Each structure stands twice: as structure tokens, then as C-alpha cells.
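Sequence only, no structure available. Ideas?
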Amino acid sequence: MQRSRWRLVLVLLTVPVAVVVFGSLFVLAAEHLEGRETDFWSALEWALAMLSGAGSGILARGTHPLTVTLTILAQLFGMLFLVLAIPFCLRPYLEERFEARLPHCLPPMRDVILFYHYSSTIESVLDECQQSGTAFVIVEEDMALARRLRNRGYDVVFGKMDDDSRLLSGVEGARALVANGPDQGNAMCILSARENGFEGPIYALAEDLPYRPPLLQVGASEVLTPLPVLVAGLAARASTHISPPIEGLRLLNSQVGVAEFRVRASSPLAGVRLSDLHLRVRHGVTVIGQWVNGSFAAAVRSETRIEPGAILVVVGAHANLAKVERLAIPVRRRGPIVVAGYGVVGRRLVELLIEAGETTTVVDRQPIPGVDVVGNVLEHATLERARVCWASAVVLALSNDSEAIFATAVVRDHAPEVPLIVRAERTANVARLYQAGADCALSLGQIAGRTLSYYLRGEQAVAIDSRLRFIRVSPGALVGGHPVRGRVRERAGALVVAVERGPGVIVDFEDDFSLRADDSVLVCGTSAELTSFVREFRTTPVHGPRL
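Reply:
I predicted one. C-alpha cells follow.
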């Protein structure tokens, strides 16, 4: 018999026993202390009334101190019994009756993905599975969470992995298993699946890198650690030491520079097509691309519109870049990196930034070791003390998405030109963070979702590297032609930003300008675009500095 049933039986037995005991004591008290006779049934009625708290004035209670004490004890016992019986006896019994509606064993698992434990980490993967019609089942050990998942339309099996060795019976036909619980729970799940004859792939999500070997030892096919990847992603977007926005800057002559500009909604650049701006003709600069919602979009076509709030990447002579500065806000790349939130993610992020040689300013509400500014990041006084306006970047590593969204809006209003990188708890809130003003937003679910999609559904797990690079090449097939015209950008994607001729560098190309065989061409683009440029125009790398 289950424990809740034993408790219910104990309650049902305690009530009549207590009524009989207190009724008998009342008969004795009435005869020996009050000097009056009372029949046993009337005494039972008195006892039941006193224990239930609804018996005021049913029988004369007597005046003797011991009789009064007996009445008080009966009422106190009844009150305590009701207080303890409902939460510890009746409620567990009713909950177990409700639990019976949840399946306790796996359905037919042929070509079905099994997820052990639900969390926001796998939320995006489940949504993708639903949209694509991929069948899946969730094994959940938390009864309340299992009920909520069932109400959302998920197939849920409720059970305790430690208590029920047959919980995963039938898993051998599953397509794959994803262990998403605590590390010790994942180990139990993996062992149980292997013991039940499952020979397919098992993907475990571990909390940290040291737990990877033990999970592989107990039978996991792959162990994914999205948390360190999330921290590295936040650090890479915040620090130019960890991930320079453009590789190969050393190839540029001192006359040429690269700058980033934020385009406000009120800027004359916002919403305008590149072909209508004529930035190369009017200002002598070239737009390489723009960062929008955390992704880099190369300006391949002249019809490309500059998005409000985007960060433009522009190359040109330093004097010409200063002209563009009047149209848009320059993005600072000097000063410390401000990290708001010193939890698990914030602490690891600061450690990684310090190892990369960055200076950090840590903001947190708690005065704990490692925190530089104690205060609420939602308050302007705290932002002033942290010198957010003079930071090279701000990273919000808050654990609450609602607070992160509001903090994003507050920081963006306080320091509109500072790059703002935000950590999200749920993938669904990433879009809201971009709307609030974040330049880059990453969630644990994004990292885990991309990787799991690669393993489970054969999708591309990691986006193609969009980081820009500069290379120096020979003109190749472009000899005698114009470096920009002739649909050079459309044909290869990469962009000619400068031409080295003799000791000088040319960035403004007149209409009659043509490339010579002894020129060196500086080309900018992503790795894929540069590869396409070299192949399309049959160029060769030019190594070493020009003399």
C-alpha cells in the first residue's frame, strides 16, 4: 500500500478513537467531578462537537477546573488535527489520485526522440520538433511540471528514475535520447536506458566540462556543455581581444581605417538604400556591412537598406571617416567592459575577459568579493558610478529575463553608443531583448538548440563564421578594370576597399581608374566571400608589407 493511503487510513482511524477517548473522559469527569450523570452517547456528541470546533453550548461543560481543562484539550486537539491532517494526509492522497492520470510508462517509441527532464535549455528544440512533426516524449520527475507540460500538448511520462527501474522500459526502439537533467540524474538515465537495451545515440547536456568524461564513461554518445559556449560567445562579442571584429587590420596602411557607427532612428542614414546614399562618391568611404540583431549582413547589393539601430562597418581614409561621424554615432572600443550580474555566468565571463587582458567593472546588488560597484543596474546612479558611458562594452549577465529586458532599455537610453550584449534565460525572449536595444543577445537554449538540431535533425549547428577579414592579393583578372564597378561585389561578395600603388594607398577611385599588374588590392569580406573572390578573379596572395 502506498504511503499516502496509509496516512489516509491513519486519519480515518484517529477520528473515532479520539471521539471515544474524549467522550469517555467526559463521562468520568461529569460523574466524579461534577456530580451528575451523563449517558455515553451524549458524551460522544460532546466530544465530536469539541474536536470539530462547532460544539459551543451542546452540553454543559461543567465548572470543575479539570472538566474545563478537558474541554480545552479536546478543542486544541481538534484544531491541531485539522491543521496537520489536510496537508500531510489528505493532500498527498488527492495528488496521487490526480497523478494517476499521467502515464507512468513509455508509449511505443519507434522513431521517437526521448527527452529526460524539461527546462528552458531544450525549449527551442521541442518547438522545432513540433513544427517539423518529429515525435518526442518527455520523461519528467516533477509532478507539477509534468502536468503543465501535458496541458501544453506534450507527450509526458511521469516517474522517478531512482524509484522505478522499469520507467524506461521500451526505450530500445527510440530514435535518440537527450539527457537534460542534473548531472547525477543524467548518469542514472543513461545507465537505465542502456540496461533496457537502448543502443542508439544518447546526448547528455552537462553543466560543466569536468563532467564530460564521467558521462561518456556511463554510456553517453556525446556530451554537450552549452554553458561554457554561452560564456565564450558573450565574451567574444564584448572583447576585441578575444574575437577581433575584423581580422587582418594590420594589412591596412596608416592612411586607411575601419570604424563602426551606430545608426539612430533619427539619422539621415536610417532606412535609406546604399545606392541612394552614394557614400563612396560623397564621403570617400565604403560600407562593408551592418550588424543587425546580433548578425552581420554584408552590404553585397546596392539595394541594401541601412537598418535603424544597426552598427555600420565602414572603411576609408581617416579624414573621410570623420565625415561619416556627423551622420552616425561612433562606437567606442576603449575603456573597461562593464559586466552587470555576478552569478555563475557573470563570474565565468569576468574570468575569461581578465585572462584575455581586458579590464572589467563588475556591478551586482550583493557586496561580494569581485564586485566593483554595488547597486541596481536599473538605477541611473549605479550606471553613473560604473561609468557605463565610458565603457567599451556592457554585458548584462542577469538571471531574470524580465529584469534583463528592462535593464537593456535603461542602459541603451543611458549610453546609446556603447555596444550592449545581453544574456537571456529563455530563447523566446531573445527577440524582445533586440527590440529593447541589445546589439547581441544569446541564450543557453540557443546554444543547446543549435547543437542538438545538428545531432538530432542533421541541421547546421553553428552559423557560418560571419567575422570579416582583410587580405592583400594581386589584381589577377581585374587588371585593366575598375576595382569597384563591373559588379565586382555582386560576383564574389567580397569588396575591394583600397589599392596599394607604390608607396601610397588609394581609397577614392575615379571613374577612369584602372588596376595595374603591379598593384596590390586590399579586399574585405567573410572567409567564404574571400575564397569566392580569389577563385572568381584568379588572384594570388601578396605577403609582407609594401615598401
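The chain has a mean pLDDT of 81.
Hope that gets you unstuck.
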